[in-house]
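Problem: given the chain below (469 residues), write out its structure.
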Amino acid sequence: MATPHIRAYRGKRIHMIGIGGSSMSGLAQMLLAQGYRLTGSDNLETYATRGLRDMGVPVTIGHCAENVHGAELVIYTVAILPDNPERVEAERLGLPTLERATLLGQLMEGSPVAIGVCGTHGKTSTTSMLAQALVVAGADPTVHIGGSLDFIGGSTRVGAGRVFLTEACEFNASFLHLRPTVAVVTNIDEDHLDFYHDIDDIQDAFRRFLKLLPKEGHAVGNGDDPRVTALLQELDCHTVTFGMGVCCDWRPVNLTYDARGCASFDASRHGKTLGHVTLRVGGFFHVYNALAAVACAWTQNADIEKVCEALSQFEGAHRRFERTGEIDGVQLYHDYGHNPAEMRNVLSVAKLQPHNRLWAVMQPHTYSRVKRLFQDYLTCTRDADITLVTDIYAAREKDPGDIKAIQLVEGMRANGLTAVHTPTFDDTEDYLRKHWQPGDLVLTMGCGNINQLNDQMNEHERAKEAGPM
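Solution.
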């Protein structure tokens, strides 16, 4: 069966399986803005599913075959396995289906400037920074972010300009469905090892993505990452580098950090300062993200002073070291970081915030990732005073039976960390409430549903304050 094209289904009913996912919910909003009729389903009720329902999209919680009845096109993500009852029923009925990444590629078609931001870490923050910068600079871009940015009112923006900006996710090599004219590569590291054989296989996927660029296109890459620079040297298109190294095209000059880890620097190209950035988000990694945004905006002839002004106003994307509330004098934060490098990075920022004790609440994500990066998990929360570990979030995987969260906890203790296994959200909340003290900071981390623990604790606190009905 030929791959269906989304443009043939305007005015027809489209059903989206897993509509509450960070990318899928954004694509749903984009399709809705363009006049498509949508329904959707997800296995959990979340702020994303509630938000879509408020926009008029019928969303069913729970997957069942009947959900696809009456649909003329079914869209799914790679996280929705072939044995999902809705996918099974769509196949039985002979309904055309479209994978999320293919849909994104189709929506980008025809854009004179198609920017894909890829990398193992920092995609969402870099895309969000670049989106805000391009809007302020007057480019009026269409945007798709795998997260939510208040500045654009959510995860998508439909603009009237020449630019289509999106995250380009390397999981399952889905970014190969895109056709970028500009690519930004933040870094290349080990991840998604349930799909890739090893780091060389990962690098080769990025190679194939960059090879999609036309000769007149631009590749913007981290000049401090040897795997990224090696790929840039293979390209025939224009290349631009950013980083701390003296050989990078864009560098931060007069770089300083405030007490909370927020950087201030001059954005310098080939030794010439073109703007000044004072970030409101902490962490050395955000210097790289901001430089990537500046360098990419420069390829589009954007006013760099306006770009830097926009970056200085950037407040961060949701689920990226996001403060979610305060209970009993304890500050609650959440971050999407789900592999050891990301957890280590965000904890380096958390420890700079005023606090008594720092709690790290880790939801390990997928059995394959935990197995392949096991040793790195054992020390990545060393900056925390106490680490709580929930059960592993399976996501798209089935439990192999040979890896458990308690093994992580035992390994952490062997490495001198204070670690506790709290299997469920109820277990975790109960432990926190019994042991936290005013002035503590609690950071939950993971890309599964661990953010719902923050929601749960806040809801319970509001109910307690309201008293008995």
